Amino acid sequence: MEVSLDINGKISNFTFKVDCIESEETLNKLIDAYLEIFSKIDQHLKHYSLTPSFKSIYLCFTILTPTEEISEERFFHYLTAYPSLLKKSKVFIENVINWMEINNIRLWQDAENPFAEAAAYSLALFDQENIDLYIRRLILCDMNHEVYQVEHISSLVEKYGFTENVIRLLAYRLGEVGGQFGWEQLDGYKTDLLAFFDENIELRNLFFEVAFNSIIKLHKGRPFYFEYIRILGEFIADQEIRKQWLVTQEKLIKDTFGENAVDMS
Known about the structure:
Blueprint: E1 2-8, E2 11-17, H1 24-39, H2 41-47, E3 56-64, E4 69-70, H3 72-79, H4 83-103, E5 106-108, H5 117-126, H6 131-139, H7 149-160, H8 164-172, H9 182-199, H10 201-218, E6 224-225, H11 227-233, H12 239-257, E7 261-262
Parallel strand pairs: 2-3, 3-5, 6-7
Antiparallel strand pairs: 1-2, 3-4
Helix pairs in contact: 1-4, 3-5, 5-6, 8-10, 9-10
């Protein structure tokens, strides 16, 4: 395996050249290299005087074979075939998430792809128990610049249905990972979710709890817009119960946010 680094302006381009991508030995070398490079990310940024622009840094990992470029999603899909490499892949994604949380900096693979977002999605597609890891990565994305997230989330819903893990993901879609298309995407599932919640009370309660808490976190330190709660209220089928619920929640919001509670209706 050949590893090279090119600094293009403020973009760090690490290129990994391999002969064959699918062998366990090569995959192990690659994920070890990912872990090693990222463990030294602070030294790397300092050495090359790379500072965030709008709280964002570009860190590009590119895998090349003699015939093609391997996408991040595909690479991490290959890793899932080997338990030891799957474990390393989770550690890598967790390291990325932890670094971003500590430093309050977004990492980008390129102008469209958040760094390690496709990796987290690939693991979630492999096993729904990894959806929580995917949610953590999404929360740290700039969801006001969505590209593939609608497609990714739809794929997870299609594969797993309304399981507990998927319900959590959809709930966050109304809050911290709402972004550009969260409300629109959830509106597409509204009819099915209302029918599902009618038969699955515990998961309905989970959806409302997670969504409400995520909406509160989204508005921490900023004006709170009641529209978020009203959108959530649309997932209560009974109009009278919905009306009573909204009165209670809006009072709670006013008590919590005071003058920062904004009613645009």
